Amino acid sequence: MKARFIFNPHSGSNRRNPHLRDRAAAFIAEHGWDARVVDTERPRHATELARRAVDEGCTLVVAIGGDGTMNEVACALIDTPVSFGLIPCGSGNGLGRHLGIRDPGRGAFRTLLTGRPVAIDTGMVNADPFFCVAGLGFEAVIASRFATLTSRGFSGYLRTGVAAWRSHRPEHYTIHHAGGRDEVEAFTLAISNSSQYGNNAYIAPGASVHDGRLNVTAVPSVGLHNAVPLLWRLFNGSLYRTASVRRWEGERFVIERARPGWIHTDGEPRAEISRLEISVRPRSLRIVVPAGQAVT
Ligand SMILES: Nc1ncnc2c1ncn2[C@@H]1O[C@H](COP(=O)(O)OP(=O)(O)OP(=O)(O)O)[C@@H](O)[C@H]1O
């Protein structure tokens, strides 16, 4: 097997405990693969490293990191025959959790040996691909603040979320979809390929990563009166039972807002824009999932 492992020393707890780099090297030696581990040195470097691996004839490129690293590596593998492997060890790990690749230890490495490739969809926001969730509003503000933290993990999301919640106000959006146009006030607006943000927070319960469709979810104003029930439903996978939460499903959307603002793709902040053209590239990424795992 000719492979490349791309390790992000900045993801999740890798900074404090970079043992997964050594574990990957030991795995390569144990199985006699023609492979090596390379570290990312800066944001977006993983895409360059993955492109190089493809050019050099690797048939498998593995991301060791969170959803941001996953996104950067996967961007280089869209519409190629190269398989994508994931050792999820970030702060949220939304795609890994959706696909049943949970354990950054033995389980995820075993999947590289015994798993099967599944072709999943790529979502596009203008020119930026995403595989898990993209979004606007509160979640994009969190992504922009979280990107500046040196200490990461779930507690980092929690602290950032509580601080941003106090000052964030719902925004007005126009959503163009196949059935027409809707105007919404949303606290946060998510465009999902997979079902969750990460940490089992299900923003689009029931979403499928290979149905050629995306889910847009608008969460209304979140205040003291409804924050707890909304959070409970988010983590319980029943958000769509909240009457005030609106959703659309389809292949194409255009989302407009009055002023440019942050967006995020897979938890990473991107350019501040006011018009988003959203589309999907069906079954464009081959990702290795556990052999017995049913993939929705
Ligand atoms: N050497 C580096 N130094 C600083 N940042 C880096 C480096 N290499 C990559 N990055 C950036 O680290 C960021 C975070 O990575 P990643 O998303 O994998 O971890 P996470 O945010 O902890 O997890 P999750 O996305 O699952 O919440 C990405 O924006 C990536 O571009």
Automatic annotation (TrEMBL):
Pfam families: DAGK_cat, YegS_C. The keyword Isomerase does not apply. GO terms for molecular function: ATP binding; ATP-dependent diacylglycerol kinase activity. SMART domains: DAGKc. Residues 1-129 form the DAGKc domain. This is Diacylglycerol kinase. GO terms for cellular component: plasma membrane. It comes from Lacunisphaera limnophila. Gene3D superfamilies: 2.60.200.40, Probable inorganic polyphosphate/atp-NAD kinase, domain 1. Its EC number is 2.7.1.107. Keywords: ATP-binding, Kinase, Nucleotide-binding, Transferase. The keyword Nucleotide-binding applies. PANTHER family: LIPID KINASE YEGS, SPHINGOSINE KINASE.
